[in-house]
Every structure is written in C-alpha cells, then in structure tokens.
Amino acid sequence: MNDALQKAQAYLDMLSRDTMELAWGRRTAQDRYRIMLAALLFGDEFERRTRHGLPADEPGERRLLMDLMSAVIDRFADLEGLDREEAAAFLGDLTNRDHILELNEVIETFEQEDCQRSLDEVLREAVGRRKERRVWARHWSSG
Q: How far is the C-alpha of 87 from the C-alpha of 85, rounded, in Å?
C-alpha cells in the first residue's frame, strides 16, 4: 500500500468521530478519508515544490499554485482510482478545499510539535479559531 494511503488512514484513526463532525460536518467515511488524503498530498507537494524557496513575484506564485494543484489532482486521482475530472471536482469544491487546507495546517502543526498534543486536539483548536480567521480575512480583503 502507498505510504500516503497508509498515513491518511493512520491519521484519520487518530481523530474522534465527534471531532470529524465538528470539523467537516456529517460526511461519509469516504469523504473524510479523501479530505485527509488530499491534505497530506497537498502538504507533500507544497514542501517538495518550495524546498528551495518561494517565487519572488506574483506571476511565479500563481504558476506555483497552479502547478501544485495540478500535481495534487493527478496524485489524488491516481491513488483514489478516479478520473482527473472527478478528482478535480472533489478537490475544487469550496467546502472541501477549505477543509483540506485547514487540515494541512493542522497536520503541519501536529508534526512540528512532534506529536506533543493529539491530532484530535490540534484539529479542535483550529475549528475553534475559524470565526477569528473569517474576521481577519474580511478585514484584510476589505482594504
């Protein structure tokens, strides 16, 4: 079995059902697994593509993001046995995308802390900060 698939299942097993429902709502087991897998793939691709630094300009950043998402879609489709369009539809759904990006940050925090807190605890904390992040996002986008 692929390392990403094993890690996705292992991390999913660290989360309680209550925490997953709090974070993602009432989702199928397959959707929860796919959110976890996509978050791991996104993190892996981001790290690989930015290992030597970020682009210095906005066009470079846009290219990085487009290439990154394209690679995640391809890997996700391959691992899940989906065609590229199905994978892009799941990953492109705004709710799924928000959950995937949030979970990627949660996983990064969990791993950087060397598992000092449970993954469940780190995800609950992130969910608790959603309102605060929305306020800041509106503030910064309003100019």
A: 5
Quote the longest CA-to-CA distance of the chain. 48
Model confidence over 59-110: pLDDT tens digits?
Answer: 999 999 899 999 999 999 999 999 999 999 999 999 999 999 999 999 999 9
| Token pair 């299942």: residue | 9
* pLDDT single digits (tens) 114-128: 879 999 999 999 999
Which amino acid is residue 140, in one-letter code? W
Nearest Cα residue to 19 out of 94, 129, 120: 120
Give the C-alpha separation, 36 to 9, whole Å: 8
CB 103 within 8 A of CB 123: yes
Q: Which two tokens stand for residue 110?
A: 């969990």
